[in-house]
Amino acid sequence: MGRNPASGVSRRSFIKYSGAVGVAGALAGCGLQDGTSTDGGSTDEVVIGSNHPLSGDLSNTGERMDQAVKLAAMMKNEDGGIESLDGAEVSVVSGDNEGAQELGGEVAQELIDDGADVLTGCYSSPVTSAATRTAESERVPFVISVSVANSILQDTDLNYAYRPQPSARQMGVDSANLLPQVVRDGGQEIETAGLFYIDISFGQSIRDTLREELPNNGVEVVAEESIGFGETADTQVTSFRNEDPDAIIATTYRPGTIELLSAMDNQGYRPPILAGCSNAAMNDVSALEEMGQTAEGGFATNFALDPTSSRAGDVRSRFEEEYDSGFDANVAMTYASTEVILAAIEEAGSADPEDINDALGEITVEDHVAAMPPITFQDNGENENALAPLFQVQDLEDRVVAPEEFAETEPQF
Q1: Nearest-CA neighbor of 357 among 195, 182, 132, 27?
Q2: Class of domain 169-302+390-406
């Protein structure tokens, strides 16, 4: 079971999933009816384990990611549950990894012990790396909600891990391509850049790609500054001021970017182009309001809710109504990742982890809320169509401006 890259044979058959009704109809012809799973047993519930930081420095985002998993399950149940299992309900069990690497695997094990048939998480890349290894050892599929470090899937051969979102490398490639193009098309100059990043695998992975890809797009990296959890950014901003790059590209969690802009405010400095790559704060309305006018006009490449989809807009409205909270890029990607899980369960017609894993290895999910093409997985678990569109902060809201097929507005300079 699972993917076997050594075989040289792709297990994907490009099964098209565009709604529960179509899948249910197809599976009904195979005898999967009346709550009967593929192994002949009866299933009235399928359990998703949500492994996110519900306390600690990352909890502002982690709590909302957990809520996105719950909302996707809630809306699936409202639509009749898992139709290929005769309306079996989807339930969510949640675990708090506190953003701590040592808890990633521990929480994953607890969720499996609590009955999770499939897992999702974890936001922090080191935490996700630990959690996916535990899931692998237990042969339980793990669909990453948000975590970009290349090493999670590319340093170890995992047969039970999948990433719908772009990897760090893809994030960096999209950023290095889209940002210079949009800036230059707007009549502005971008020849040099400074990189600001969180000093863990997440930030380092994107830094490495930007180092490689920006020069290919005519942008020289002239400064690099890192930050750790809880640190200030005053020294780093002073260094950037001395180098005077055309753009600063920040790859940090929400607190780090807020600290960066606070330090800029304290020193009366802002580069001509402020940007982020896989940057939570630049896509978080509450963070943008906290950072204020210093963030206005800034750019960021990240995953996104598809602004051209009316259904995606309905999901966002429902989330804000249910939880009285912002539906940012991380929340949107978590919801889309849960849609992938639900599609795989429908396709499997089973709550058995092995069957769900087989479905994940073969499925193509067309009907999802993320601003990217259909989601389908390569043999290493990466989404072969992953995309990080470019946002701009306009009136302290994140608006997609590129590529054209997902743009909701024009960039402003």
Answers
A1: 132
A2: alpha beta
331-379 pLDDT, tens digit each:
999 999 999 999 999 999 999 999 999 999 999 999 999 999 999 999 9
d(CA 271, CA 196): 13
- Give the integer Cα–Cα distance in Å for 47 and 325: 25
Q: In what order do the strands lie in the sheet with 220-227?
A: 220-227, 192-198, 247-251, 273-277, 299-301, 390-394, 397-402
User: Do 169-302+390-406 and 5-165+308-376 fall under one CATH topology?
Assistant: yes
pTM over 0.85: no
Does domain 5-165+308-376 match CATH 3.40.50.2300? yes
pLDDT digits (tens, 9 = 90+) for 231-242: 999 999 999 999
Q: Which one, of 18, 142, 21, lies nearest residue 81 by Cα? A: 21
Where in the chain are the domains? 5-165+308-376, 169-302+390-406
